[in-house]
Design brief:
about 425 residues; mainly alpha
């Protein structure tokens, strides 16, 4: 018969094992749904290809132009269609089959990736074809994005929705780690054409995943004119104070924070005097931090005071961005980028979860398209404005200002709330 001294450690070990298993199940709750698993794997593969192209495209634009402004302009043109067409895309997401809308979007993006690969293979020497293809890619995303945002909540139960959004953030940011590292190897061994070609092939995987989904489209009972449906979505957001505040918060965050990613080639080349290898290293540290942040959000799931948490972490993010801009020590910059990426994804995943939890399914496409205009629209506008001021002053000076403003925005919402602090 075992003594108490022998059984106690065994009991502690068993309890620790059960606690660990429960934590894993809680973190991966949305993976219990077949369709979500399939879409997650397809999206992860496609995201890896997209980040490979982003790294190669940024380096290509910088090599051809040598200008921070053109880096910002390329980012602006890729995101501009989000502002122009996403609201219409949201109406279509509520009216038509969201899966089929996503398929058309993937086909167009696949075509632009292969077109860019072909142009580079034959010796592209001007930046304007890159800008045109960026705009076309952004246009496809403007219609596919609302459909994707509206599709995910139909794949899982409502209680698991924050977890699903966080797991989607994990795949996107895992791709931010893997994609740049693969891009660095591909650029060194095979050249830029390989990055664009591999991105084109990655869309095949997500297209197959979308075809395998078992979701059914339920058309609206009495669809109205597009203008009337769009006006209904805008009216709903305007009269829901917390939704409007979350949308404004999303815009200001992306407007001020995403310049740090746009300027990474400049920091690698002009601040640290390194090549593309250092650029991909910086991207990998940022992406690794984002993965950790998304895991934290996935583990937390739905909890009280999510809004307050997002605001506090946003203030921390602003401080980290300013410190990264001032750092001239490479290892310290790596650490700061890691924690900046973690803070950013905690803010984005939490705010997006709050929006998805508030909106009803019949308005989801339109409301999420309005949110996307703010969320994604802040990126190009911020990149363009920050790129302009960086060409006049310097990229580090602009990032310091952006970081200070991020802290100010978070402080404002913590003090005045507008419904965010209480969510």
């Amino acid at each position: 018969m075992d003594s108490p001294a022998q059984t106690k450690p065994a009991s502690v070990a068993t309890a620790a094992s059960l606690t660990g298993a429960n934590a894993v199940r809680r973190t991966l709750a949305a993976f219990h749904y077949r369709d979500f698993r399939i879409l997650w794997l397809g999206s992860c593969t496609s995201s890896i290809g997209t980040w490979m192209q982003n790294v190669a495209e940024n380096w290509l634009v910088l090599s051809l132009s040598g200008s921070a402004f053109y880096l910002g302009l390329d980012a602006f043109l890729q995101q501009l269609p989000i502002m122009l067409f996403s609201l219409i895309g949201g109406v279509l997401a509520d009216r038509f089959d969201r899966r089929k809308t996503l398929l058309v979007s993937q086909y167009i993006q696949m075509s632009t990736a292969f077109t860019l690969a072909t142009l580079v293979f034959f010796g592209l020497s001007h930046v304007w074809p890159i800008m045109v293809l960026s705009f076309i890619t952004g246009s496809a995303q403007a219609f596919g994005g609302p459909a994707s945002q509206a599709l995910v909540p139909t794949l899982v139960e409502k209680n698991d929705l924050p977890n699903a959004i966080a797991l989607n953030s994990i795949q996107f940011n895992l791709a931010r780690v893997v994609g740049p590292l693969l891009a660095g190897g591909a650029l060194a061994m095979f050249g830029m054409t390989s990055c664009f070609s591999l991105n084109g092939l990655s869309f095949v995987v997500v297209i197959i995943a979308l075809m395998m989904l078992h979701v059914k489209h339920t058309p609206p009972a009495a669809p109205r004119r597009i203008y009337e449906e769009l006006r209904g979505g805008l009216s709903y957001v305007r009269h829901q104070g917390s939704l409007l505040a979350l949308t404004v918060l999303a815009f200001t965050t992306t407007f001020l924070a995403f310049a740090v990613l746009t300027f990474l080639p400049l920091f690698a080349k002009q601040v640290f005097h390194q090549g593309v290898g250092e650029y991909t290293r910086l991207m990998a540290f940022s992406g690794s931090g984002s993965v950790v942040g998304a895991i934290v959000v996935a583990w937390l799931g739905s909890y009280r005071r999510m809004g307050r948490t997002a605001l506090i972490v946003q203030a921390l993010c602003g401080f980290l961005i300013a410190m990264f801009a001032l750092s001239r020590v490479l290892w310290l910059s790596d650490v700061l980028l890691f924690f900046t990426g973690s803070a950013l994804i905690i803010v984005f995943a939490t705010v997006t979860s709050l929006v998805q939890l508030v909106v009803p399914n019949e308005l989801r496409g339109r409301v999420m398209s309005i949110y996307m205009v703010a969320f994604r629209g802040g990126m190009p506008l911020g990149s363009l404005v920050s790129g302009y001021f960086a060409s006049k002053f310097s990229a580090p000076a602009v990032l310091v200002c952006n970081g200070i403003l991020l802290v100010a925005v978070a402080t404002y919402f913590l003090v005045r709330s507008h419904g965010v602090r209480e969510l």
